[in-house]
Amino acid sequence: MLFRSVGQGTDIAARYVAEELSKVLGQPIIVDNRPGAGGNLGTQIAARAPADGYTLLIGTNATHAANTYLFVNPGFDPQADFEAVSMVGVLPLVFVTANTNPISSIGDMVRAARAKPGTLNIAVSTTTCRVAYELFKQRGDVPMFPVDYKGSSQALTAVLGGQVEYMVDTIASLRSPILNGQVKALGVTSAQSSRLLPGVKSVAEQGVESYELVGWTVLYAPRGLPAETARILAAALKKTLAQKSMQDKLLELGIEPLDKTGEPLNAFVASEKEKWGRLIRGAGLKPG
To answer: Within a 10 A sphere around the Cβ of 127, how many other Cβ atoms?
Structure first.
């Protein structure tokens, strides 16, 4: 069996999952990491594979939601070319500020931004970060100015140096600076508090109604996978993700394991594609 991975952190998660899933299925799994074009390269290859269950893809919110709106021609159709087998997990983000800032909650942040419309800055380093801010701006009526940085470390340096007041990024990227006291967590972007950052309330729990924006990873197969094969794979992945050792590994990587299959998963993926498209267009991000 072959796992296609789209690169970077997804590749690490894919290797952990593949190692344990191979034990449950009783056959070896090879992980083929194909980064490039925002994950499009590996996804294109998987889309052309036979729908026999022997080639699978670890897809993400980038490959199966955002990239449709960020690339003129991604080289595949996330709906027509793939079917979702089972979710692996979600990757919540977190809003932070420097420890020296008197702001200590999402409510404080909202009030500060409304008091000085368009003057407070927030660092963003990826499309996911930008989309998380765009939804926050819409749901919370928070008029801030997003400042683009090339990576999480540059954005964090800007926050610590006082060039920008706030930052939003994955919990995986910011957990260490939070724990060592460099920055303080204001709110996580999942609908509820996350196991990844115990004790920190979500943005929605702090009054920004219906706010939720997370990254996610889903196990996909080329469209046309036999129903019985899909059932076997989903059941095997569920058993794999239920293992405490696997949950601990994924949490360490910043992924909160989540069991979702069938129609609930299909509905989730469809709603996410619509949400990401609306927010990307609203942010004025043009396909390249």
So the answer is: 20
Mean predicted confidence (pLDDT) in 136-143: 94
What number of CA atoms fall less than 13 Å from residue 140's CA on the CB side? 28
Q: Residue 93: helix, strand or coil by DSSP?
A: strand
pLDDT at 288 over 80: no
Measure the CA–CA gap between 188 and 212, rounded to whole angstroms. 9
- pTM exceeds cut of 0.85: yes
**258, 89 in Cβ contact below 8 A?**
yes
Q: Tell me, what DSSP letter sits at residue 33? A: E
Q: Which pair of tokens denotes residue 194?
A: 């996350």
Residue 8 has pLDDT above 70, yes or no: no
Query: What pLDDT score was predicted for residue 6?
Result: 59
- Alpha-carbon distance of 288 to 285, in angstroms, equals 9
SS3 210: coil
Classify residue 255 as left (phi > 0), alpha (psi -120 to 50) or beta: beta
